[in-house]
Design a protein that fits this description.
Oligomer: single chain
Order of helices and strands: HHHHHHHHHHHHHHHHHHEEH
Helix content: 55-70%
Strand content: under 5%
Length: 424
């Protein structure tokens, strides 16, 4: 397959929407267990309750921590492949519009960071995502090699080699360990504006530098490119050939994941080697999740059982950012401040309730609009230098409108204010 091969995508691939919804829900529940990186928990009422809380935490973190993010990154690259293929069939190049969308995504990252102290990943997506623009013209072989290069964690390999040659040498640490305790002080203050400012500044720096130290900044482009390969090759479509591919992926991923899960626990490992093995374990474990989900989705009862995930996945950006806003309102002192009263189990149960409410909202919204609220804004693009930004939503009547009614109300009010400010 060459770079000019169009991707037939006249209809959305439902399994990808459902899988994306699954990934975002897993991310949300991990964040609820973490109290959105706000380390404030109650003392368990009994040893039994302490054991339950610890079991919930350990089990959920083993299954999803570092894996749900990986799924989300993989599907980010897949989405780019579909969008690029659709524009290619029209004789257009998607590069410029994608670059614009990455800029918008950086703005969404800043919005999300306000409510999530040091935990945002969208800024990494927005910056690293630019690698997909030159990657679109590479052959499949070159894409595979590029993906393997980044997933191999070359920076950590260099660090490990230097440590082996110079045993006393310590790899540089970009992340400041005091950043998160400092952010907690501003969250504890209960002052929203102070918290928001430091989350947006210190928090984004802490999150980004932590991502470099933890290997995520190298992992992300590898996952983006791998997702692009899967989208370009049509691997998520139903066919006997793809079924064989996903069965093999499931088996190989299980073996590799188990191998590196054991290997990363060796106590004498250099820190960079432990980081490499941890990242490889997470990627291969993600392979288990993705392959198992795709194979199960071929069964009618599983599709019915996960129908809500499809709606959730179609509004992944809206759901990702709204869960940060909701979580901060629940846990942080500037609002309800329930973090000191909710242990891991109760935090998980609250997360499940929020998940169900979000799914219902997605179903309601998508029955009336073509895109989710933030997805509609993300579709905005400067089609022509003489035109303003346009966004397409579907109104209640089924007709396409430029913007939803409430946005029209706001924009018309602002316009009238600008024409006659004295009247307000």
């Amino acid at each position: 397959m060459t770079e000019n091969t169009p991707i037939n995508n006249t209809q959305r691939i439902q399994v990808v929407d459902a899988l994306r919804g699954f990934a975002i829900i897993a991310i949300m529940l991990v964040h609820f267990l973490e109290h959105f990186i706000y380390n404030s928990y109650p003392v368990s009422s009994s040893p039994a309750m302490a054991s339950v809380n610890e079991t919930v935490k350990e089990a959920f973190f083993f299954l999803f921590a570092g894996k749900s993010y990986t799924m989300f990154a993989l599907l980010f690259g897949f989405t780019y492949a579909i969008q690029y293929g659709n524009q290619l069939k029209k004789g257009k190049d998607f590069a410029g519009r994608f670059a614009w969308r990455l800029c918008l995504l950086a703005g969404f990252a800043c919005l999300n960071a306000i409510f999530f102290p040091g935990g945002d990943i969208l800024l990494t997506f927005a910056t690293v995502g630019f690698i997909l623009i030159p990657a679109r013209r590479l052959s499949t072989t070159a894409l595979v090699l590029a993906s393997f290069f980044f997933l191999a964690q070359p920076l950590e390999i260099i660090y490990a080699a230097v440590q082996w040659i110079l045993p006393g040498w310590t790899p540089p640490i970009l992340h400041a360990p005091e950043s998160y305790p400092t952010l907690k002080v501003f969250v504890d203050s209960g002052n929203f504006w102070s918290m928001a400012w430091h989350n947006l500044t210190l928090g984004q720096v802490a999150s980004y530098t932590w991502g470099i130290d933890a290997g995520r900044l190298m992992q992300a482009p590898g996952l983006f490119i791998l997702g692009f390969i899967l989208g370009k090759g049509g691997f998520f479509k139903e066919s006997d050939k793809n079924t064989v591919f996903w069965v093999r992926t499931l088996l190989i991923s299980a073996v590799v994941s188990f191998t590196f899960f054991i290997a990363k626990e060796v106590p004498t490992l250099y820190t960079p080697v432990k980081t490499i093995f941890t990242m490889w374990h997470n990627v291969s474990f993600t392979g288990i999740w993705v392959a198992a989900f795709v194979l199960l989705y071929r069964l009618e009862y599983f599709r019915k059982m996960t129908a809500g995930l499809t709606f959730y996945g179609k509004m992944s950006l809206t759901n990702y950012i709204s869960q940060s806003i909701i979580g901060s309102l629940i846990f942080f002192p500037y609002a309800l401040g329930l973090a000191p009263y909710l242990g891991y189990l109760n935090s998980f149960l609250v997360g499940l309730v929020i998940m169900l409410l979000q799914i219902r909202f997605c179903q309601w919204w998508l029955a009336r609009h073509k895109y989710g609220p933030l997805e509609g804004l993300w579709q905005c693009s400067p089609y022509h230098h003489k035109r303003s930004l346009t966004c397409v939503f579907r109104g209640p009547s089924g007709h396409l409108t430029l913007i939803p009614p409430y946005f029209r109300l706001v924009s018309s009010t602002v316009f009238r204010m600008r024409k006659s400010p004295a009247s307000f």
